Amino acid sequence: MGLVDHLPRAALGHFPTPLEPAPRLSAALGGPQILIKRDDLSGLSVGGSKTRIFEFVLGDAKAEGATAVIASAGEQSNKLRELAAGANRLGMQPILLLTGVTGARELTGNRFLFEILGAEVHTTPIADRFDPALVAELNRLCERAAAAGHRPYLVYHPGKTGTLGTAAYVSAAEELVAQFAGLDREPTHLFLATGAAPTTAGLVLGLRTLGQQLGITGVSVASPHDQSKAHAIAYANKCAELLEIDRRIGEGDFAIDDTQRADFSLPATRAVIEAIELFARTEGVLLEPTYTGKAAAGMIAAIRRGAFKPTDTLVFVHTGGLPGLFAHVGEFGY
Ligand SMILES: *Cc1c(COP(=O)(O)O)cnc(C)c1O
Question: Which CATH number fits domain 50-155: 3.10.50.30, 3.40.50.1100, 3.40.50.2000, 3.30.460.10?
């Protein structure tokens, strides 16, 4: 019996995703063996970490009889793209509230895909996801959908859906541990991008609950160290309660590296562009500047600092995000 098997789950992606060696990347960095956990290949729309998360969140929505799902995030949100795709597959209407929108509509990357996916799109200048005025707007959209005859389901991550998203990555930890068993060397460290933090929280909770001792570093994409740490710990321990796991997560269970963090509106840094080019030119693997490029830049900097021995094995979790790359074409200097 797995840790999350009792939760409702909607089949939306292809799991397990591959855990692939990256020998040419490892050689180029002259350091440890690197394995890439290909959650970018999860398969829903362009794939990515949100496929796993929405298998659980939309599984819950379906179990509650929802006919419309409502969520907010930025214009290049992978979460909203995969939510819209998953909702379509389950016969629910996706209603999206795009945050931080002040200028003219620019139909590129994920924002373009929201239209193809037929989502009902609303916008707000509010950018802070914790702003009570944003929650009020989301509640208004839920009421509107209900008045139109829908049973609305609100996806708002500080609440229940964040805990379910965390549980999704506990299941990813189970998947990884099964894959580790087939390797000839035990992985010594895992890197991934940390945004709102459910993904990091789930992996940390799952890996520690299953007795894994490898180091875990979340490379924060936007928030300062203490805030990312606190969010991940809170999600992990709420999820532990939901799953009736006795283990609690503390400061010492994982590290947050906030040296790559940057506001989403800023152009990609030199280190991020170099990381994206290195993955592409050694392994043919595509990253993007908002999440995975920062996680890779953090891992590369750690390797170059001499943090690992050549006998170490690192796992890089590729969380997807490809469409967002196309919103950054002008920053690469080609
Ligand atoms: C959402 C997302 C993340 C971050 O996940 P959190 O759980 O919010 O920390 C990382 N990479 C990609 C591509 C994402 O879309």
Answer: 3.40.50.1100
Q: What is the pLDDT of residues 161-201, one digit of tens each?
A: 999 999 999 999 999 999 999 999 999 999 999 999 999 99
128-149: pLDDT as tens digits: 988 999 999 999 999 999 999 9
Cβ atoms of residues 286 and 322 within 8 Å: yes
Both tokens assigned to 224 = 């300062």
Yes or no: say if 300 and 180 are a contact pair by the CB < 8 Å rule: no
In ligand 1, the atom with minimum distance to the C-alpha of 195 is 9
Omega of the bond prior to 18 within 30 degrees of 0, cis? no
Mean pLDDT of 58-87: 97
Q: Which residues line ligand 1 (CB under 6 A)?
A: 48-50, 78-79, 193-200, 291-292, 319-321
| Interval between CA 84 and ligand 1 midpoint (Å) | 16
